[in-house]
Amino acid sequence: MSDDEHRARRGERQRPPARERSARHRSEQRPSERARRTDPARLTAYTAMREIADGAYANLALPRLLRDKRLTGRDAGFATELVYGATRMSGLYDAIIASAAGRPVGKIDANVLDTLRLGAHQVLGMRVATHAAVDETVALARQVNGAGAAGFVNAVMRRISERDPDEWVDLVTQGITDPVERLAMRTSHPVWVAKALRAALIGHGAATPDDVEASLTALLEVDNEPAKVSLVARPGLSSLDELEGWGATRTGLSPVGAVLDEGDPGAIDAVRDGRAAVQDEGSQLLVLALASANVEGPAAADERWLDLCAGPGGKAGLLAALAIERRIPFVANEISEHRADLVWQTLAAARAAARDADTSLKVRHGDGRDMGEVDPAAYSRVLIDAPCTGLGALRRRPEARWRRSPGDVAALAWLQRELLSAGIDATAPGGLVGYATCSPHLNETRFVVADLLKRRDDIEVVDARGLFVDASGEQLPALREGPYVQLWPHVHGTDAMFFALLRKTG
Ligand SMILES: C[S@@+](CC[C@H](N)C(=O)[O-])C[C@H]1O[C@@H](n2cnc3c(N)ncnc32)[C@H](O)[C@@H]1O
Question: pTM score, two decimals?
Answer without folding.
Answer: 0.93
